């Protein structure tokens, strides 16, 4: 598993929206068990909904426009 893939899997588990199978090549049975667990346990669905609601509040383009229009703003 690449470092990037391992980091994504760890973040998914940390966020509570899925499981980290800790391998780049999980056995089909392990994937099946993980899918069943995620679908069966409401905590994953609840966290996914909560994150979705949080993401919906972000307005990245509005933020960029506000920053670009701020007079005298300097990054240095």
Describe the sheet with the most strands.
none
What sort of overall outline do the alpha carbons produce when their principal axes are compared?
elongated
Can you give the helix content as a percent range? 55-70%
Strand percentage lies at under 5%
The string of secondary-structure elements, in order, is HHHH
Determine the number of helices (DSSP H or I, runs of at least 4 residues). 4
Q: Mean pLDDT, rounded to whole units?
A: 91
Counting DSSP E segments of at least 2 residues, the number of strands comes to 0
Please give the alpha-carbon distance between the first and last residues: 38 Å
Which value, in Å, is the CA radius of gyration?
Answer: 19 Å
Q: Would you tell me the structural class of the helices and strands?
A: mainly alpha
- Poorly predicted spans: none
Written description of the protein model:
The protein is mainly alpha-helical and 76 residues long. It is 68% helix and 0% strand. The protein is built from four helices and no strands. The protein has helices at 3-15, 28-40, 42-57, 60-69. The termini are far apart. The mean pLDDT is 91.
Question: How are the secondary structure elements laid out?
Answer:
Elements: H1 3-15, H2 28-40, H3 42-57, H4 60-69
Characteristics:
mainly alpha, elongated, 4 helices
Characterize this entry briefly.
The chain is 68% helix and 0% strand.
């Amino acid at each position: 598993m690449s470092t990037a893939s391992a980091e994504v899997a760890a973040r998914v588990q940390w966020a509570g929206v899925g499981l980290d199978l800790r391998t780049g090549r999980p056995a089909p049975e392990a994937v099946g068990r993980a899918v069943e667990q995620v679908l069966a346990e409401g905590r994953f669905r609840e966290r996914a909904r909560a994150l979705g609601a949080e993401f919906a509040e972000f307005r990245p383009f509005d933020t960029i426009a506000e920053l670009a229009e701020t007079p005298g703003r300097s990054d240095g």
